Description:
Chain A is an alpha+beta fold. Chain A has helices spanning about 75-80, 85, 90-95, 95-130, 130-150, 160-170, 200-205, 210-225, 225-245, 255-285, 290-310, 315-325, 325-335; strands at about 1-5, 15-20, 25-30, 35-40, 45, 55-60, 65-70, 150-155, 180-185, 190, 195-200. Chain A starts with a strand and ends in a 5-residue tail after the last helix.
Amino acid sequence: MVNGRFADGITSRLRQATLEQRGTWLLVRDADGVVLNRTPQNIATLSTRLGNTPRTVSLQAGSGQPTFETSDHAGIETILSEQKRSSNFLYQLESHLGLIGVATVFTLAAVFWFVVYAVPAGAKVVAMALPDQLLEQAGDHSIGLLDRIYLDPSELSAAEQARVREVLAPHIPAGPESLYFRSWVPNALALPDGSVVFTDELIELAENDEELIAIAYHELGHVEHRHLIRRSLQDSAAVIGLFLLTGDLGGADFLTGITATMADLAYSRDFEREADEYALDSLAALGISKEHYRVILQRLDASYSNDSEESDSSPSALRYLSSHPQTAERIAAIDAYQPDS
Amino acid sequence: MSTALTAEHDAQPQSTVTPFEFRGDGAEFFKIWIVNLLLTILTLGIYSAWAKVRSNRYFYSNVYLEGESFRYLAEPMQILLGRLIAVAFFAVYILAAQLSPLVGGVLIILLTIATPFLVIRSLAFNLRMTAYRNIQFRFDASYGEAAMALLVWPVLGVLSLGLLYPYAMLKSHQFLVRNAAYGTTPFGYEATTWPYGRIFLYFLGILVVVGLFYLVFYILFPPALIIVMAVGYVVAFGYFTVALTNLYYASAGLGVHGLSADLEMPGYLQIFLTNALFIVLTLGLYLPFAQVRMARYRAEHIYFLANGSLDDFVAAERRQVNALGEEMGEVFDFDIGVV
């Protein structure tokens, strides 16, 4: 006999009651022994165990859906025992400390694998399969967007623009809109459609044309490996994946944002490494010394470090550092680089 | 735990104030959560429907009012079906948009038109799957009402540069609560626009103060700007959540009974910030503990103002509800949020 409360499912009234088994029937009686409900045992169902939450036996009646609720887990499981094995499988998993430990380690490893390996690999496959036409459309959007948010019109003279165009022409894809001149911080940008943006500030920073060519090949490496589209694919996949796993964090969604930003930084570091390799390979093939690349990178880095000492330009330095982390590491990679041939 | 206090409720001297109670335990929920994650990963996401039911059941069943717990009744297969429909729709949309932007645009318009309907179904599903004392909650509303509350008023709020936004928020709360019922007893919602407007004004005031701090730090110590931003964000949205939750429950009622809430900024922010800190430090493993802590805090600060016995609510007639619409509603997963 199990103690609990009976609710007839018609009104919200609850009655203290007991549940007992008589042959193939379940009987619910109130405190005075009056039978409140009579249900064949094989029709009654018992809710599965979930932590220490109360158990509900669903009973049968002409109208409504009466229930008997109890917190006596052991007692109710002896009466409705035939369902015990299957229904409590999950509870047994959840009570098994060894399994909980394994599950914890496995889940952390799986999330790590998903974010660090699966997402980049998947994004690469998708990005490489995308048609060129789609990428060109994306390019139109991004130069427009960049112009509105960051970039100002170039102040270089037409002659200087023409000269740089001529220097870079053999190296970048042909076309009227494959090279843009703009004004911003010293930087160069690759757009998804394969065009490259040089800033006046970068051109002024470069001391010879080989340095500009080296930078162009770094940007073309981003284009060749479709980094921009891969980055946006990876970021959205990481966010969606994390969101699916954690569900609604109840106002703490910015935590998903922090994690995704950290993943994004790691991704962009991989991309810089890939683009550097592409640039070094191309320079080696042209017979241009890798020292030119090393020198312009160091000068770029120095220009940002100097900048950030003046407080008012720190936001631009932050922007740069967030997308170009670990210059020292990249310089070391350039020093260690040996061309294949 | 359910200490009944005499309420200072004007017209009803005999009403008693009882806080809700949350009896869940962080360590207990952690085990359920980690098994949910493990099985979801191993089944490539299929198990997520079962996981949702188990975790919802845990949170509903641990909310107690006058010693009785709530219950979550949904079956995993219903949730799974809804998710499959959502995924299928999304796949069709991606494919169609790829083939022709026009078809993609038409689908978006169709989805917008269907949104009020789907939200109604979603609310109806989630409330019908919630029971207390073996009586189910209900939700029913007309398409027009839903379209006004969900589409028209918010758009007018934006078009009026936020001036109408407090009113739009009042309208959406009225829509959510007035169309809900416990058994045959409908919920009521009595509020005026001014308290909403005041919350928005204070919120704007906090943003202005944060902006001033931002300027000061920009001039004096730029490296700390990111901290100023983070603190400003947490304080502003913390205030918004606390004030709006309190207003929401104070305005809602069930028949002769009332509700109220007294969430407080220091307590709420303390739980929110320590939760966030521990989640980051434990690589996310603290998440279930954090959810339990927040659920307990909220439950303890929401009160039921009972006017007499809770024995007299009557169940509604069982009606056959369009199953497909309800499962489509799962796409949105709207909830009124009892506690």
